[in-house]
Amino acid sequence: MDTLLEILGGSYYLGIFAALILGGIGFPFPEDATLIACGALVSRHATGLVPTLAVAYAGLLISDFVLYSIGRRYGRSVVTHRRFRRLISPERLALIEDRFERWGVYVILFGRHMAGLRAEIFIAAGVFRMSRAKFLLADAVTAPFTIALMFGIGYMGSETLDHVRRELTLAGYVAAAAVAAGLAVYLVHRHHRTKHLAGAGGDSSQ
């Protein structure tokens, strides 16, 4: 707990947000566990009720939209893509396609509450080109039910707080490392690009 407070400037909120985003794309931060952690933190007065709910809601919607965008960007090839194929198999995509043909947007409304299927459903929604507005609206309507259920479990059983504190601390570290790695890659790329342009300019002047 003390380590996380030092890293995040005395706030758990970045840890909650990071855990939800990272968990959505495959890191070992289960969404339900993070939401249970939110309830436990509020129960212990470590975070405020309204800001915790707001951060959790925003984190869920953004995480879900990232998965949807992956499916929309790569289409059916997502099942063979080296980075994303572990998120959804060809067999599962075909199964979800059948569900979409039968029930349409209701797959989003009810599928969000199925821990083992929700990520695959969101990716499939993008693959099948569901409109962004319809996806976001359906997800925005149904996400509060997931939050309320898991948050309530955490609030009533806050003895799990010690465990979830470790999860949030790890999420904070991973998020910080990801940002640092991305910045390093950008700076290296920019440096090499600048050298290349400078070299090309020197050659043309001769």
Topology:
Elements: H1 2-7, H2 13-24, H3 31-43, H4 49-74, H5 90-103, H6 106-111, H7 118-127, H8 132-156, H9 161-204
Helix pairs in contact: 2-3, 2-4, 2-9, 3-4, 3-8, 3-9, 4-7, 4-8, 5-7
Q: Overall 3D geometry? A: flat
Average pLDDT, to the nearest integer?
Answer: 80
- Helix fraction, binned, reads over 70%
The tally of strands reads 0
Summary of the model, kept short:
The protein is an all-alpha fold. It has helices spanning 2-7, 13-24, 31-43, 49-74, 90-103, 106-111, 118-127, 132-156, 161-204. It is flat.
Provide the descriptors you would attach to this structure in a database record:
206 residues, mainly alpha, 9 helices, flat, disordered N terminus
What does this entry look like structurally?
Helix 2 crosses helix 9, helix 4 crosses helix 7 and helix 5 (90-103) crosses helix 7. The protein has 206 residues and is mainly alpha-helical. It has nine helices and no strands. Mean pLDDT is 80; it is low at 1-10. The protein has helices at residues 2-7, 13-24, 31-43, 49-74, 90-103, 106-111, 118-127, 132-156, 161-204.
